[in-house]
Amino acid sequence: MDYSFFQMHPHYFVNMNEILLIRNGELEMRNGDCIPTSIMNKELINDAIQSFVGRL
Q1: What are the phi and psi torsion angles at 45 (to 5°)?
Q2: pLDDT digits (tens, 9 = 90+) for 36-48
Q3: What is the pTM of this model?
Q4: Rounded to whole angstroms, how far apart are CA atoms 55 and 25?
Q5: Which helix (H) or strand (E) holds 27?
Q6: d(CA 37, CA 54)
Q7: Whole-number Å distance between alpha carbons of 33 and 43
Q8: 27/40 Cα distance (integer angstroms)
Q9: DSSP assigned state of 16
C-alpha cells in the first residue's frame, strides 16, 4: 500500500491510482484493461479500496 499497489487477484497487482471503475468482480483500469478481483478476498479488497480513497 505504501506505493499504491495492491494484489486484487492471485495473478494481478494493480496501481490503485489507475482504477477507473469498480464493478462486481472486476476493475476497469484507465488504460482499458479489465482486471478480475478475487471473490474469496472481496471484503479485504473493499477495505483496501476504502482505505486508499480515504487517504486522497
Answers
A1: -65, -45
A2: 998 888 899 889 8
A3: 0.78
A4: 24
A5: strand 26-29
A6: 20
A7: 22
A8: 16
A9: G
In sequence order, the β-bridge partners of residue 13 are 7
What grid cell was written down for 9? 487477484
Longest dimension (CA), the chain: 27
9-31 residue pLDDT tens: 889 999 999 999 998 889 999 99
Q: Which residue has the cell 478481483?
A: 37
> To 10 degrees, the CA torsion angle through 16, 25, 36, 48?
30
Give the helix, strand, coil percentages of the chain, each rounded to 5.
Answer: 30, 40, 30
